[in-house]
Amino acid sequence: MTKTNLTYKVTMKACYLGFLVQATVINLTPVLFIPLREQFSLSFGQLGLLVLINFITQVTVDILFSHTVDRHGYRPFLTIAHIFVAAGFIFFAISPLFMKNPYVGFIMGTFLFSSGGGLLELLLSPTVNAIPSESKSASMSLVHSFYAWGQMGVIILTTLFLFIFGRQSWPFIMILWAVPPALNALLFSRVPFGPAVPEEHREGILKHIKNRFFIAAVFAIAFGGASELVISQWSSAFMEKVMYIPKALGDISGMAMFALMLGIGRLLHGKYGKHLSLYTLMITGTIAAFLCYLIVALSPYDILSLLACAISGLAVSLLWPGILVLSAERFPFAGTWLFAFLAAGGDIGASVGPWAMGVIADNAVKVSFIADIAYRLGLNAEQVGMRTGLLFSALFPLGVMICLLYMKSSKPL
Which pLDDT value is given to residue 1? Predict the structure, then answer.
């Protein structure tokens, strides 16, 4: 065991920075898509493959390491995770200097930082959950708010850097983003960790794999991931193609405003939510998210759609961290496997939801009655497709609500 004079407050600060790093892992490469495409003549399919590799790697790491970290402790894996992220960013940035095919280097770099990101996703939440606190849900919401701040920071700072220094400067901003994980690796090598569940009391996954509460929680976080990522990833395109807002303004008013409200919701609950019912807040949030989706999809007024996009971030803010807390409370002796399977479920929803939105947007106009409605309203194919996709996506927060109602009504075995 590593001796340290540091306190749990420092551990929490390291977790805050860890969530900022996790946001960088997920959001940095998409911001660089256009510079990479222009400089290396990459196809949209090749760029999309980088996102898929990121997703598959994180889910695989979540599952493969869930048992190993319980045996060896969180410290070495959290330290290694940050080193992998920093190394992956640097390798991605410099690979065009020494590789005949830079895209192969991009794949290798993505695999490296995604492996670190998967470990962060697996370990940061249980690390926070193990720290003694008055309210686990408030602590979890507060620390998860830093993902939103990281998302905003990556989008805004990287965009400004490229604007000031030119798109060809993308390797330098990527190397700069390697500094926070490198520093946090040093911090996690020293901070104290909360008491882990003793091995003799730890309950394995086989005991709960058929538990209906656990199954409902996995579906809830999957629907929650979809509810969060559809608006987050598609709002900018929706504003540009449907509302004719310029891309730069759409990124700020769409993606960045969504992230801001997501962070505010988690921050407010972290500060003031310890005496409020988490179930009530989350169920109310799913209803609000459903209404926001309907407004964005159906409203003819641009300002109303903009407000609904922003408010949806507030509405879904507690879904992911809240489900983690509720599950940890129901299964207090579960090992890291609980967070691993919930993280994997959330990742699947976060990937499938935006994909389904895109498929529906591509094919909606091919449905005769939808095409007829579009013709009567004077909408083009892109407008009717994206509106239909968002209308379908309103089912995701309803899915979370149904799961939460079941989880609330179910009794412990």
Answer: 47
Report the alpha-carbon distance of residue 27 to residue 101 in Å, rounded: 24
Burial class (CB in 10 A: 0-12, 13-18, 19+), 203: middle
Q: Are 357 and 389 in contact (CB under 8 A)?
A: yes
* Radius of gyration, alpha carbons of the chain: 21
The parent domain of residue 158 ranges over: 1-188
pLDDT of residue 206: 60
**At which residue do the structure tokens 């894996």 appear?**
77
Residue at 140: amino acid letter: M
Residue 193 belongs to a domain:
no
Structure tokens at 372: 């007829």
What is the pTM for the complete model shown?
A: 0.82
User: Around Cβ 126, how many Cβ atoms within 10 Å?
Assistant: 24
Considering the domain architecture, whether residues 351 and 389 belong to the same structural domain is answered as yes
Using CA atoms, how far apart are residues 292 and 304, in angstroms rounded to an integer?
10
- Per DSSP, the three-state class of 381 is helix
Shared domain for 208 and 249, answered yes or no, is yes
Sign, CA dihedral 201-205-211-216, equals positive
Q: Six-digit token pair at 87?
A: 């190394």
Positions of the chain with pLDDT under 70: 1-4, 44, 196-208, 247-248, 250-253, 365, 368-371, 374-375, 377-379, 412-413
Render 257-295 in DSSP notation, one character per residue: HHHHHHHHHHHHHHHH-TTS-HHHHHHHHHHHHHHHHHH
Please tell me the predicted confidence (pLDDT) of residue 203.
57
Q: Are residues 146 and 232 in the same domain?
A: no
Phi, psi angle pair for 291, to nearest 5°: -65, -40
- C-alpha count within 13 angstroms, C-beta hemisphere, residue 269: 33
SS3 130: helix
> Among 154, 188, 222, which residue terminates a domain?
188
d(CA 339, CA 1): 24
Residue 196 gets which letter from DSSP?
A: P
Calculate the alpha carbon distances from 138 to 127, 134, 267, 304, 340 in Å.
Answer: 14, 8, 9, 31, 21
Whole-angstrom CA distances from 69 to 27, 196, 249, 335, 413 are 26, 11, 43, 9, 27
The number of domains in the chain is: 2
